[in-house]
Amino acid sequence: MGESRSISTTCKICGKAMRVFKYRLDMGEGKYCGRSCASKGLYLEHPEHRERVSQACRVAAKLRAATPVEAPCKFCGKLFYPMPWKLRVRGDRVFCSRSCAQKDLWATRPDIREGASARMRKMSAGKEPWNKGKAWSAEVKEKLRASWTGDGSRKENFKKIRGGNGSVSATEALVRKILTRRFLWNFAIATGSPRGEGYPTCYKLDFADPEKKLVVEVDGASHNSIERKDADAKKTAWLSERGWKVLRVSNAQVLSMCGISKLTELPTSLPTERSFITALK
After folding, report:
1. pLDDT per residue over 102-157, tens digit each?
2. Of 116, 74, 65, which Cα lies nearest the Cα of 97?
3. How far apart are the C-alpha atoms of 198 and 110, rounded to whole Å?
4. Measured between alpha carbons, how far is 221 from 162 in angstroms, rounded to an integer?
């Protein structure tokens, strides 16, 4: 039935044989076999369209080839280098970043600022604040004041103890001073196991000597749970099967070897790498 309503014809551009419904030919359509030929036919039948597209391409190429000019940010006054067309379109309202543009918008459009504040008040209406409206106690304020040295750095007694996920714990920092450069920190070994097969895609080793296949793992308090002990045993077994020797040391053992009882104390002397490794074997 569809064959009787279609007519055999050829594409006006490439001459390819095709079948087109008769009503499309009556409407002046169905001249081309595809979008590519239709675009070429549009260029041939309508020179003004071709000229508009060519002009747009020339303008775009000219804009890309333009040299950035120096201009000050309207909000912070910082000198930056926008494209010339931005200065022509926006005048002096050019900003060095989205942050400055947003701050200028809030400063010059109080209606937007008030609208945002009203929406925030509506969203928080009836909800209890996280601190229940209570101010910090004098003890907490004093502890916060004592945790800063005044130059923007944290005091030793407030340095974080936990590590992992690319961060160095205070205990790992001590071990890092003991071991030489042949031990690579946070060394990754690909397991070759896809996700969901019981093994991670790679194991991260605290300190590893790839040449001698020696690993030093620093275990904090989080390694005392049953689940973590099972995971550590599985990791050690996987490494041992591939010729690696795994030495595990706890935070308490590291402090003891350094002659201190807590991280707030400064070690007077550090053990040598040889004595440290020997004590773990």
Report:
1. 888 888 888 988 888 888 888 878 777 666 656 777 887 777 777 665 544 444 44
2. 74
3. 56
4. 8
* For the chain, domain boundaries: 2-61, 71-108, 158-280
Nearest residue to 206 via CA among 246, 261, 253: 246
The 8-class DSSP code of residue 206 comes to: E
Domain 158-280 coded CATH 3.10.20.30: no
- pLDDT per residue as tens digits for the range 54-95: 888 888 887 777 777 888 888 888 888 887 777 777 777 888
Helix and strand element counts for the chain (H, E): 12, 8
> Is residue 179 within 8 Å of residue 207, measured between CB atoms?
yes
- Stated pTM of the model: 0.42
How far, CA to CA in Å, does 50 sit from each of 14, 57, 60, 148? 20, 11, 15, 68
Taken as a whole, the chain contains a residue count of: 281
DSSP 157: G
